[in-house]
Amino acid sequence: MPSRQFHIKKAERNMTFYQSHNLGTSPFTEWAMVVLFYAAVHYVDAVLSQEPVLQDPRLRHPTDHVTRNSAVSKSPNLAPI
After folding, report:
1. HEC profile for the chain?
2. Cα-based torsion angle of the residue sequence 45, 50, 53, 55 in order, rounded to the nearest 10 degrees
3. Residue 18 — φ and ψ, nearest 5°?
């Protein structure tokens, strides 16, 4: 199972890629949203991987968006989102 640090490193890598492009001149601005989305997914997964109320490992380490949404709805740390 990927660790919290694994997800944080992936999110930071995505953010570095995002920040390396000049969105004012790039013809590929739509990809900025894709990169930001997956950075956010990794930050959410980092929190879920450490969430003590999630006893089911499938919720702590989701492999699809449906399972991730279920885990987020059960996570007090992610309730604001």
Report:
1. CCCHHHHHHHHHHHHHHHHCCCCCCCCCCHHHHHHHHHHHHHHHHHHHCCCCCCCCHHHHCCCCHHHHHHHHHHCHHHCCC
2. 80
3. -60, -45
| Integer Cα distance of 41 and 19 in angstroms | 17
Can you give the pTM of this predicted structure? 0.90
Tell me what pLDDT residue 67 has: 97
pLDDT level of residue 23 (50, 70, 90 thresholds) = confident
CB 20 within 8 A of CB 28: no
Q: What does the pLDDT read at residue 24? A: 87
Q: What is the C-alpha separation between 77 and 22, in angstroms, rounded?
A: 34
